[in-house]
């Protein structure tokens, strides 16, 4: 059998295959954190803290855990995206340098990016499905519409992941990831309408929240679960998130090329 | 004459204002073992990266396997093997998985890479460690795995960037043996090294690079004949007492080092006898054959360039 050049889709799938080979050996450590963290959040915030919250207009009339579950689905995806898009990618550039090995094959830097993003999307998808199952078992899911939270979470997660992967490709040191975590991820999780409606915040903060993928993802997931999402609004949120993915992919292609073909 | 596998004309590479490669002409023919010899920073690795189609050239002509790297990079890379200066194995995978995963990037089927991995593990003497993680392997084992990995696509052309730097003598000799076998089986090799013994062992033809330029080209024997003498007489003295004047005319060239004189001559024994007859009394003396190291130091000087 002679070596040959594979197409872009096949190349991306080979990237996923390589990651899967790694994952099969190392899934235990990541699976536990991926599974445990959102479940602990759901227990502590949804059921524990939530027991003190009276269902009302702000919670869509539902118990707090039910109000929170679709948002936690999105937050889980965005948080998983954070790790998968920073240290995991940085290592392949800098610590293990595995990407330097891959570019010596027929695979191009852009195809390495596609493979990585596809892998991240699959990780977010599997995390979201597991979380939805657990939330259902804990009684935090009461409508079939909540299933739409899974694609919403993956899309919101990728809208964060793609630009962050591009950013990671420009880093020579990992220090910036701490700043990204403290000043972008955490505020975004706390103040973009996940734990309480955005109306509770001063109006001047709203536009900042609107910029985040979390707000759009939560609007989609919660709106679908509660049946309050209109088609126009849904389309708007999806379009915004898709645009963030597209910008991330375009920047990522440029930075992967610059980093790997010097 | 056969079509060259690699053909460079006026090839240059710049990083910002720094010119790493300043216009080199190179031809490598099928079946050859070709060497780039040079000190650190001479431009060897930059050249290799351009030939391996992972680094775009800044200027000049370059054809690899008859194709243009700028246009046909992936097609060329499908047919070459690359051993980079620094290992970039996936240290969290097993030895075998490194070979299989890498092979898949060349569009090879699972069954094919599985069988190929078994063959390469044998070749690299790693069969016993096949299912161990790469991380704890010794430097020599990792290097052998990197070389095995570069062969997973049965390349027509193998590029090795300082393949044995940092290895102990046993590991180096084992690697040389494997490379020699590859050469016997018809694989064209391009090797960069700053070890002269490695170049003499492996290369049919080589170029000496200095400051991004080629300063000499030929077979090891030709280079020695052209730039050195058949033999070298080394006369050792207590530091500071070495005086070249009494022996100046006994050799084609006399080099003065802190503790010795080097006399480049066709007949070392005759020169030694003549020196003794003139009352020169070194602490010790040694007659040896000229090596590529003598050529290299003559061409590039003894000053450390960093």
Automatic annotation (TrEMBL), chain A:
GO CC term (a single one): ATP-binding cassette (ABC) transporter complex
Chain ranges passing through the membrane: 29-49, 117-140, 146-167, 179-198, 232-251
Major subcellular location class: membrane
The ABC transmembrane type-2 domain, residue ranges: 29-259
Pfam families per record: ABC2_membrane
Domain of life: Bacteria
An individual GO BP term: response to antibiotic
InterPro entries listed in its UniProt record: ABC2_TM, ABC2_TM_bact-type, ABC_2_transport, Nod_factor_ABC_transporter
GO molecular function per UniProt: ABC-type transporter activity
Keywords, ordered alphabetically: Antibiotic resistance, Cell membrane, Membrane, Transmembrane, Transmembrane helix, Transport
Topology of this chain in the membrane: Multi-pass membrane protein
Subcellular location: Cell membrane; Membrane
Family under the similarity heading: Belongs to the ABC-2 integral membrane protein family.
Protein name per Swiss-Prot or TrEMBL: Transport permease protein
Organism whose genome encodes this protein: Saccharothrix coeruleofusca
Taxonomic lineage of the native organism: Bacteria, Bacillati, Actinomycetota, Actinomycetes, Pseudonocardiales
Automatic annotation (TrEMBL), chain B:
GO MF, one annotated term: ATP binding
Main location: membrane
Name by which UniProt lists this protein: ABC transporter
UniProt keyword list: Antibiotic resistance, ATP-binding, Cell membrane, Membrane, Nucleotide-binding, Translocase, Transport
Location(s) in or outside the cell: Cell membrane
Family from the record: Belongs to the ABC transporter superfamily.
Pfam families named in the record: ABC_tran
Residues of the ABC transporter domain: 6-236
Membrane topology, from the record: Peripheral membrane protein
PROSITE patterns: ABC_TRANSPORTER_1, ABC_TRANSPORTER_2
Organism listed in the record: Saccharothrix coeruleofusca
Source superkingdom: Bacteria
GO cellular component: plasma membrane
Single biological process term from Gene Ontology: response to antibiotic
């Amino acid at each position: 059998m002679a070596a040959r050049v594979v197409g872009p889709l096949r190349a991306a799938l080979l990237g996923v295959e390589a990651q899967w080979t790694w994952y099969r050996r190392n899934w235990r450590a990541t699976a536990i954190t991926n599974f445990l963290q959102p479940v602990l959040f759901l227990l502590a915030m949804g059921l524990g803290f939530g027991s003190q919250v009276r269902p009302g207009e702000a919670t869509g009339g539902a118990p707090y855990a039910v109000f929170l579950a679709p948002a936690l689905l999105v937050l889980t995806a965005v948080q998983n995206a954070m790790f998968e898009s920073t240290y995991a990618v940085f290592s392949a550039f800098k610590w293990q340098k595995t990407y330097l090995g891959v570019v010596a094959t027929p695979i191009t830097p852009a195809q390495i990016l596609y493979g990585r993003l596809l892998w991240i999307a699959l990780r977010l998808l599997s995390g979201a499905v597991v979380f939805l199952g657990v939330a259902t078992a804990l009684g935090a899911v009461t409508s079939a519409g909540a299933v739409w939270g899974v694609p919403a979470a993956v899309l919101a997660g990728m809208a964060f992941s793609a630009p962050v992967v591009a950013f990671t490709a420009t880093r020579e040191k990992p220090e910036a990831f701490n700043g990204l975590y403290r000043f972008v991820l955490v505020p975004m999780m706390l103040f973009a309408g996940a734990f309480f409606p955005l109306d509770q915040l001063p109006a001047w903060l709203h536009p900042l929240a609107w910029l985040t993928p979390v707000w759009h993802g939560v609007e989609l997931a919660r709106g679908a679960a509660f049946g309050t999402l209109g088609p126009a609004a849904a389309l708007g949120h999806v379009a915004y998130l898709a645009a963030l993915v597209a910008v991330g992919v375009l920047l990522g292609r440029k930075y992967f090329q610059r980093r790997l073909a010097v | 004459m056969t079509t060259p596998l690699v053909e460079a004309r006026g090839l240059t590479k710049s990083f910002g204002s720094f010119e790493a490669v300043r216009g080199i002409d190179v031809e490598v023919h099928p079946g050859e073992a070709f060497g780039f010899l040079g000190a650190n920073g001479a431009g060897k690795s930059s050249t290799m990266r351009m030939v391996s189609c992972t680094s775009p050239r800044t200027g000049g002509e370059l054809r690899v396997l008859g194709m243009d790297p700028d246009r046909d990079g992936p097609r060329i890379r499908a047919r070459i093997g690359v051993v980079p200066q620094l290992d970039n194995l996936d240290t969290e995978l097993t030895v075998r998985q490194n070979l299989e995963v890498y092979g898949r990037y060349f569009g090879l089927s699972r069954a094919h890479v599985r069988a190929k991995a078994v063959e390469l593990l044998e070749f690299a003497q790693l069969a016993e460690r096949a299912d161990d993680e790469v991380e704890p392997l010794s430097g020599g084992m990792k290097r052998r795995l990197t070389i095995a990995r570069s062969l997973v696509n049965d390349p027509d052309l193998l590029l090795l960037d300082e393949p044995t730097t940092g290895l102990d003598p046993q590991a180096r000799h084992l690697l040389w043996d494997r490379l020699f076998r590859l050469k016997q089986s018809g694989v064209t090799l391009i090797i960069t090294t700053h070890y002269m013994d490695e170049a003499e062992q492996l290369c049919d033809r080589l170029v000496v690079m200095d400051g991004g330029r080629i300063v000499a080209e030929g077979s090891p024997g030709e280079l020695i004949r052209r730039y050195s003498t058949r033999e070298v007489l080394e006369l050792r003295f207590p530091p500071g007492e070495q005086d070249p004047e009494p022996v100046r005319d006994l050799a084609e060239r006399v080099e003065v080092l802190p503790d010795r004189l080097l006399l480049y001559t066709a007949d070392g024994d005759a020169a030694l006898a003549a020196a003794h007859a003139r009352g020169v009394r070194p602490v010790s003396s040694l007659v040896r054959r000229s090596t590529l190291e003598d050529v290299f130091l003559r061409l590039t000087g003894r000053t450390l360039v960093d």
